[in-house]
Amino acid sequence: MRVYVPLTLSGLAAAHGAGEVGPGPLTAYAVTPGLREWYVSDDIEELEYAALNRAAAASLRMIAGKPDEARRRVVVAVDVPDGAAVADPDRGVSAASLGEVRIAAALPLAKAAAVHVDADDAEKDVAAAASALGAADLGDDDAQFTVDGAEDHELLWFGVQEIPQLIG
After folding, report:
1. What is the mean pLDDT of each run of 10 residues along the chain (168 residues)?
2. C-alpha separations of 65 from 12, 53, 69, 70 in Å
């Protein structure tokens, strides 16, 4: 099963230094029954893209909580054994937790399939979205429009061997 672990650039640097994403337990995103039902698609690529976007939104929340953090969303895609990622059935009904899974242990970075990171030109929109997130959560439509502006940026794909250039 492929899971998408939200991080920040400093979190990616720490994972690179440690050789693993962790420690566990970790929150990640994957194609879960709840995500399938919500997205109403059988196309696995579309579903994985939806899970990736859920992780990108979680990365934005991490960035919003750290004023000194680089304003670029980061998601690490990792293949884990079936059963290693567990969805919490009690949270499955919440729209905020669609696709959310828990992983008990740290994930070796060597098992990562890819790293997805915002391009430099997304930083302004991600910074604005991070600032507007609290107001968007409270129902402010203008703030939600600003948050959606960050989501308009596609995350770029990088191989694990490119992490030193990303964090450098």
Report:
1. 96 96 92 83 88 95 94 96 80 69 93 95 96 94 95 94 92
2. 16, 19, 9, 12
DSSP state of 155: P
C-alpha 24/C-alpha 102 separation (Å) is 9
DSSP 3-state of 163: helix
- Cross-strand pairs, 27: 102
Q: How many residues does the chain have?
A: 168
Q: Is 85 helix (H, G, I), strand (E, B) or coil?
A: strand
- Rounded distance, CA 104 to CA 139, Å? 34
For tokens 């994985």, name the residue. Answer: 48
- Please tell me the distance from the alpha carbon of residue 66 to that of residue 124, in angstroms, as a whole number: 16
pTM greater than 0.70 (yes/no): yes
> 142-148 contacts: CB < 8 A, separation 24 or more?
147/60
